[in-house]
Amino acid sequence: MPDTKARSRRTFLGSTAAAAIAVAGGAPLLSACSGSSGGDRAEGATTGKKLQGILPAFVGSDVVKPDLPSKNGSAIGFTTAPPASELAVSVPEKLGKGSTLTIMAPLWGTSPKDGNPYWTAMDESIGVKVNWQNQDGNTYGQKLGAVLASSSVPDVVVIPGWELGGKIPSAVNNKFADLGPYLSGDKVKDYPNLAAIPTGAWQRAVFGGKLRGLPMPTSDIPNIAPFYRSDLFTAKGYRPPTTTQEFFDLAKEITSARNRVWGCGDMTWAAFKFFGVLDEKPTCWRLVGDKLVHRVETDEYLEALEWSRSLYSAGLVHPDAKAETGDLGNLFTAGRVWMYNADISDWYGKTVVQRGDSPGFSMAAMDYFHHDGGKPRLYAGSPSNIWAFVNKNADERTIRDVLAVANFTAAPYGTKEQRLKAYGVEGIHHTVKGNEITKTEVGNNEVFATYEYVASPQQFFAYPNHPDVAEGMVRWQQRMGAFVTKPLFYGMQVQEPNRWADLNSQFEDLEKDIVRGRKKVGDMQQAVSDWRSRGGDRLRDWYRKLLDETGGQAS
């Protein structure tokens, strides 16, 4: 799974002519919020009775029992790998009716050739032929903009949340089908694996008053983790810090520019958690008295930037981070950086690569803390942040076959369907020896996380080759989950008015400039003042109306 926070938060379609073309001819944009009464509107959020009439029924899966159950909203975990003969079956009969589908999805790697054994096996098992239109994940927004602006939209298009800005939500409303007639309420029971997807993930898949997306669920726990080299810490007798001052002091002790070792990489993402900063839209608002306050207006936001800046000023951050070159993760595994922040998926990704040559390699995520050493103030993230959408011109057979693919790809761990999706064909793409599953060279070149994006089960971590990593990730989430609260507008798919689509675009680059010393904290204060006058105050009023109508959370 890609690092969903490592991509730029600015979106390609936010201010381009392509966006205007993409939504041309669609429904007119309305300034009012849809509120609890719902309505097929391009702005606002769908909540209340309208939402309840749209959402699929939830029927939990008991096909496989996890080794590590969920706690405090964490993912579930698995530390063992059943042999093929013991795998459960979650799709007892082939649901596909033989359609040929085109699916456009991001890919971080080289797409395999058509007709490869992995795709062939998946096609045969599902009963649907998929022609993949994989695009470079690093430039996916550009391709997405061009596709949504054209008249030639694939049968299925995957859209990650980090590309969901500007006018893209309006394009989603106008370009993609309503799946409610096939999935709302008890209708989803025709697809048991889809019925087991948590309700919150489906709620985020409601766009413009319609169930348009097939979700990839996540947990409420922040996906960004502050990592440290636990093997190097142990060798030196270091303990993970419990305050930002301890972090600074430890980074200073570790840093030796002469030996080409630095205490940390850029820590801004973690700093936002250390200082209790709200997340991004729509959960970027806090009610203070009777007034909504945006994250960029809070003292903790400025304090987080100032502390991140202090690490740079003291020379404790690797120079590549300041230059915004290189790969901090690779510097971390090479021992040039001892602490950095990244998506929690890096824990496994880095470990599996390094332990091949260095069996003693270990890393871990330090627990979040409040900057002064108190309990952390963490906010629940989005229940889903990647969705697959079906072309609005698709006929019923095509939609049913897309749902057949989604039901297969949403199979839980420990099933034949998930084993094939994640590891390919045994003997060709992977081998199983005892408790270990090992991908072959062919498997590494052909089995990529593309089917994952069509639909996925409840979040889980399953690493039988490295059970300590799976357990470490689940336990960390369980501990952090105890401190997670739900912010205003949690779980809502809020579509802001297009006239304010670019309002927040300035802050990302300015944050980078401030922490790297190219701008001053005072420049952010001026930018916030400008933001208010350019529309921030009016956006605040718009959100306040939405808050009054919905209560801040879907009911």
TrEMBL record:
Keyword Signal among UniProt keywords: yes
Source organism, top-level taxon: Bacteria
Gene3D superfamilies registered for this protein in UniProt: Periplasmic binding protein-like II (3.40.190.10)
Pfam family, one: SBP_bac_8
Keyword hit for Transport: yes
Annotated compartments: Cell envelope
Keyword list, A-Z: Signal, Transport
Similarity annotation: Belongs to the bacterial solute-binding protein 1 family.
Name of this protein: Extracellular solute-binding protein
